[in-house]
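I am writing to request your help with a piece of structural work I have in hand. What I wish to show you is a protein chain and, alongside it, a tokenised description of its three-dimensional fold. Could you please explain, in whatever detail you think fit, how the structure tokens follow from the sequence? You will find the record immediately after this paragraph.
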Amino acid sequence: DAFELEKKYLSTQISLQGMAKSFGTNYNYLSRVININKGKRFSTYINDLRVEYAFKELKTNSMLRNYTIKAIAKECGFKSAESFSKSFIQKFRFSPSFYLKQLAKSK
């Protein structure tokens, strides 16, 4: 819970091994805990947190809407615009650019 509240998932450097080390456990155990408690793999868990953050931030932060998709991806912890877009589409069933257009229309 603290990991999510502190938005540590926004770091581009986050890894299962690093996260396990910071919690004082091994990565196999942490992986199992995430699988059982979140019902998804580590990478899916992190990417879901990131795109949910992006979705909320884009809705409330008009400055962020002026960023490129690549810049938004970086702000949300993704290393590339492609991985951000792919995760966003998987989660919401529409692209970040479509979402930005819809937000612009609703101003």
Notes: Helices lie at 2-5, 16-23, 27-38, 42-60, 69-75, 81-92, 96-105. The mean pLDDT is 95.
